[in-house]
Write a structure and sequence with these properties.
With 166 residues, the chain is mainly alpha-helical. It contains 8 helices and no strands. 65% of the residues lie in helices and 0% in strands. It is globular and about 45 Å long. 35% of the residues are buried.
């Protein structure tokens, strides 16, 4: 029988959380994405269930294919994604002024929004806002929300087109 708390665990959400953490680690450590992906899979995602929780850095139920795809896409397209982020930043803010966690969230979301077969923009935005709430101040979450919305409008304008009125 499934425990009530197990029903709340969403492997795809955990994959996004892990992707943000991995992108943060690549920026802070200078390690390449493939190295960090392998470390996460071996030591955080494939950890024996029940050994450690998310608070200890273990994300045992994360959806590995989504995690890997987001991190690889963000790494391969980082220059393009960073340019997009710069374009949606307030005009006086350089990219380096952003909190590094917010930068990792925006890079992961930018990677996922650039996937033509990805989930709807609103799902992506909500998922990354859930991650942001766990790490950032309310003001930073609000800034992230505005930036994610603008990124989604740029990358997927068709999802926001006004309906045709007859």
């Amino acid at each position: 029988m499934t425990k009530p708390q197990d029903r709340r665990i969403r492997p795809r959400t955990l994959a996004r959380l892990a992707a943000v953490q991995a992108l943060y680690q690549t920026e802070q450590s200078g390690e390449v994405a493939e190295t960090v992906i392998n470390q996460f899979i071996r030591h955080r995602i494939d950890a024996p269930p029940g050994r450690c929780g998310i608070e200890e850095g273990h994300i045992a139920l994360a959806h590995i294919p989504l995690f890997t795809r987001i991190v690889r896409c963000a790494a391969l397209q980082q220059d393009t994604i960073d340019l997009l982020i710069r374009n949606v930043l307030p005009s006086a803010w350089p990219l380096g002024r952003l909190d590094p966690v917010l930068r990792a969230i925006l890079r992961a979301a930018g990677a996922e929004l650039s996937m033509v077969d990805g989930p709807p923009s609103r799902v992506v935005i909500n998922e990354y806002l859930d991650v942001a709430h766990g790490f950032l101040t309310p003001d930073a979450v609000e800034l992230g929300n505005a930036m994610l919305d603008r990124m989604a409008h740029i990358l997927r304008p068709g999802e926001f087109a006004d309906p045709v009125v007859n």
